[in-house]
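QA checklist item 7 of 12: single-chain prediction sanity check.
[x] sequence parsed
[x] length recorded as 243
[x] structure emitted
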Amino acid sequence: IYFDEVADMPPGTQSKILRVLVDQQFTRLGGSDKVRVDLRVISSTNRNLDAEIAAGRFRQELFHRLNVVPIAVPPLADRREDIPVLAEYFIDLFHRTQGLPQRPLSGEAAALMQTMEWPGNVRQLRNLIERVLILGEGTGPIEVRDLPTGEERGTDEGRVVLSGMLATLPLREAREAFEREYLLTQINRFGGNISRTASFVGMERSALHRKLKSLGVVTSNKSNGRMAHLDDEMDDAEEGALD
């Protein structure tokens, strides 16, 4: 049995679920006989349950019963290489369950989606694909023009990562800022893989390394994989310049 968003359970429901897990039996509503259960429970939440317990909103006993094999699922922004695969899955799912057109995802559309922010994670991606299939015309590939524009996205939909402040900078600084943000976006899109990034942007691997060094971009291992970021020394220098 799967409990989605387990932290949203009311206190009374938490107590009942805990009792079933402890006793492995329950009584049906209006009945008197005990019903034995033999089940495996999977639960999920996007909240910090330690904080919920401290605030008195979630029962600690239930947490320990559920937290036998914890699995931390990284946010979609930390696994951008999964976005095209998930998008294709949802396209097929909506075709089978709702009869929506099974439109392939173009490479350009997939690349744009990999540069967007996804605060709503997989649910947001699913909603976006469903909307594109419902509102789109024809059965051809999903193109960039089919995706929401920046104005249509607002604050709740994905936004393009590249900065909108470039117009305020001189050409040389704007070009450097664009190259830095562009390469940061592409490296993280490919999960920190420099070879794949170099192939996509059309540079030799050695040339890309030199460019990254000149821009102060470094890669390091994070808990969810290899990620690109600005070198700490460059961050300090930029903050000093701003001060």
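[x] summary fact logged: The two ends are 55 Å apart (CA to CA).
[ ] second reviewer sign-off
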